[in-house]
Design brief:
The chain is built from six helices and seven strands. It is of the alpha/beta class and about 200 residues long. Bound molecules: guanosine-5'-triphosphate. InterPro entries: MobA-like_NTP_Trfase, Molybde_CF_guanTrfase, Nucleotide-diphossugar_trans.
Length: about 200
């Protein structure tokens, strides 16, 4: 659905990557760092794209790439999303986490095509599940105030926020695109599948 709001893209890459043991945004699944790969993917559908980083990470970003720094007093991906909504309140945000290595451009386009801008968010969920994936979702400007209020009660889980909100859920062409790579075993598994062209 078309609206007058610009669609910006956000690559969430400000996490600690403690389970992976190295920065998940810098892992290379597709011949370049995953955060740059997703940045380019989002450029196909969004008028502007930003990496979402925690303060201190910006020194490593090539100068031609945009980034936004976390500006709220909380840890976790909701900080990156709130910071984007605050810093560019006129835009809707197509958010993708850097640890989703199998996301395809068609899947991003489906999100845009099936978007309902009257809802707070349009999010993917696994087939047969009503659990939204908040980190592969469009977040509308109207999400900012209730998400901030949610965070001010001490809660940080973006899925819990979406579960209590009026959202639209859609399903990916392949559930595997929601595969979340959090640890070295996940990385090895995905890398092997990608390099051998095997179905997951
Ligand atoms: N901007 C920003 N992004 C974050 C933050 N925390 C997590 N993310 C991103 O959100 C996505 C999901 O992160 P998680 O797996 O929940 O957390 P993580 O800190 O990256 O990893 P662990 O330390 O292993 O839990 C990833 O793309 C992270 O880069 C944060 O505080 N700020």
């Amino acid at each position: 659905m078309q609206t007058d709001k610009p669609m910006y893209g956000l690559v969430l890459s400000g996490g600690q990557s403690s389970r992976m043991g190295q920065d998940k945004g810098l892992l290379r699944y597709h011949g370049q760092s995953q955060r740059e790969y997703l940045y380019q993917l989002l450029q196909g559908t969004c008028s502007r794209v930003f990496m979402s980083l925690r303060p201190g990470q910006e020194a490593e970003v090539p100068p031609h790439l945009n980034y936004l720094l976390d500006s709220h007093e909380l840890r976790g991906p909701l900080n990156g999303i709130l910071s984007a909504l605050l810093q560019h309140p006129q835009a809707a945000w197509l958010v993708v986490a850097c640890d989703l290595p199998l996301v395809q451009e068609l899947t991003l386009q489906k999100l845009l095509q099936e978007r309902d801008p009257q809802k707070i968010a349009t999010a993917y969920a696994l087939t047969g599940s009503d659990l939204p994936e908040p980190l592969l979702a469009i977040w509308e400007p109207a999400a900012y105030a209730p998400a901030l209020a949610f965070s001010q009660t001490g809660k940080t889980c973006p899925r819990k926020f979406l579960l209590q909100s009026d959202i639209k859920l859609i399903h990916p062409a392949q559930d595997e695109e929601l595969y979340n790579a959090n640890n070295p075993e996940d990385f090895a598994y995905i890398t092997q599948k990608l390099h051998h062209g095997q179905p997951l």
